[in-house]
Design the sequence.
């Protein structure tokens, strides 16, 4: 049964309908799982790198929220290296995403599920699936999601395999990797004398506290309109 499931998924991924590899990957995840939408977030060292693909406005919003806020099903699935299930986002048995939940519901997600992407010991990110109505995954959907996550991880490695060290594969160049945020995090790390992960936390806190997009805050840092200092917090530079 598992072999048949894998064969069905790989057959769908190999079809040529004119869409790009990354876009096709997410669409197959949505189609096979029979849920409302799918997204794939790439991560490295507990830091979200950006969205590889999404299947629509709601899934794109879910990815954006997780990237900006640093919480949600993909973040937890990656960090804990296990699937994460929230079948009723509006009425969770244990609330866990205070900043993510309300805007995700507003975007149309009533249930969310995260599955880690890994190949051996290499962790790449997470697959996010959502439903526009509450309810758990069926046994068949759960088994499909595990196979989809494995196939997606393999596909990402294949996409990147032909790139030179330090370069991004052609198939990944069009993805939303928020490069300005990573550049800003590096600058803030130097300003505060902390690692990049802590610098990203400070960037997110500033964006959330000032009701701004993370990318906008990052651009201000890169353009030297905003500087972080250990003693005074954040300073606007004029």
Sequence:
């Amino acid at each position: 049964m598992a072999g048949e499931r894998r064969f069905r998924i790989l057959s769908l991924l190999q079809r040529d309908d004119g869409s790009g590899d990354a876009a096709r990957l997410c669409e197959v995840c949505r189609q096979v799982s029979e849920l409302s939408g799918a997204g794939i977030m790439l991560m490295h060292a507990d830091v979200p790198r950006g969205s590889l693909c999404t299947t629509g406005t709601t899934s794109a919003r879910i990815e954006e929220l997780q990237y900006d806020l640093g919480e949600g099903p993909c973040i937890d699935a990656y960090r804990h290296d296990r699937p994460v299930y929230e079948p009723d986002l509006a009425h969770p048995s244990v609330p866990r995403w205070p900043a993510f939940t309300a805007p995700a519901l507003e975007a149309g997600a009533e249930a969310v599920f995260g599955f880690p992407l890994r190949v051996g010991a290499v962790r790449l990110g997470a697959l996010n699936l959502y439903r526009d109505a509450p309810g758990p995954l069926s046994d068949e959907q759960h088994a499909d999601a595990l196979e989809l996550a494995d196939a997606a991880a393999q596909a990402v490695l294949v996409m990147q395999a032909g790139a030179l060290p330090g370069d991004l594969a052609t198939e990944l160049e069009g993805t939303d990797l928020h490069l300005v945020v990573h550049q800003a995090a590096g600058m803030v790390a130097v300003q505060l004398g902390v690692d990049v992960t802590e610098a990203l936390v400070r960037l997110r806190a500033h964006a959330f506290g000032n009701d701004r997009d993370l990318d906008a805050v990052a651009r201000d840092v890169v353009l030297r309109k905003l500087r972080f200092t250990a003693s005074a917090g954040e300073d606007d530079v004029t």
Q: What stands out?
A: Confidence is low (pLDDT under 50) at residues 16-20, 163-171. The chain has two domains: 2-170, 179-236. The domain at 2-170 is CATH 3.30.450.40 (Beta-Lactamase).
